[in-house]
Amino acid sequence: MIKPNVLSQYSPLNIIIGAGEQSYDGWLATGKESLDLLCETDWVTSFSERKADQFLCEHVWEHLTVEQGIQAARYCYDALSPGGLLRVAVPDGYFPDAEYQSLVQVGGPGPADHPAADHKVVYNHQTFSEVFKAVGFQVDLLEYCDERGRFHYHQWDYQTGPIYRSLLSDHRNSKDGLGFTSLILDAIKPR
Q1: ∠ CA 25-46-7 to the nearest 5 degrees?
Q2: Residue 115's pLDDT band (cuts 50, 70, 90)
Q3: Nearest to residue 64, comparing CAs of 109, 122, 110?
Q4: What's the pLDDT tens digit per position in 58-88?
Q5: How many domains does the chain have?
Q6: Closest C-alpha among 55, 121, 110, 115 to residue 88
Q7: CA triplet 183, 151, 19: central angle to 5 degrees?
Q8: 138-145 and 183-188 beta bridge pairing
Q9: Per-residue confidence band for 113, with pLDDT thresholds at 50, 70 and 90
Q10: Could you list the residue range(s) of the whole structural domain that residue 20 is in?
Q11: In this structure, is residue 177 part of a structural domain?
């Protein structure tokens, strides 16, 4: 649970879910110990008096089953103000690189700093969008690969919610090609 006195220090109330080492100015970084994606009590208690303006979550949803992902999306939806935004990124099931897919596969080896052994699902843009639509979000795809492996990028503002593993900032991407991107979407709570 996030303490109300901590939440009151942020305006707007922007929260990183599963932050790990991430921290950005103006964003409250949380981990499982302070905001467990699957703990209803954490969500209800933390957001009973004040709703969040925006959530940011990078490479966390793949550690949940689809059913858990839908439940987590529901908690986020309920905790957001109308018009609020959840920006979320996961490994892309259509990214056309065998080494990438080996790293992110369910039960796979993963990189040393982010083991994939506990990955429960690898999403594509259709299956991931459905998780958020199922609870009432409107979905805007920002970066993704399609069924043919073609990369799609829709202009988005990095400053409104940075995602490191993206076209805009991952060091593995260059003018010579894509080394690592994510499936990134904005889930918007209708006004």
Answers
A1: 35
A2: low
A3: 122
A4: 999 999 999 999 999 999 999 999 999 999 9
A5: 1
A6: 55
A7: 25
A8: antiparallel
A9: low
A10: 4-97+121-165+182-188
A11: no
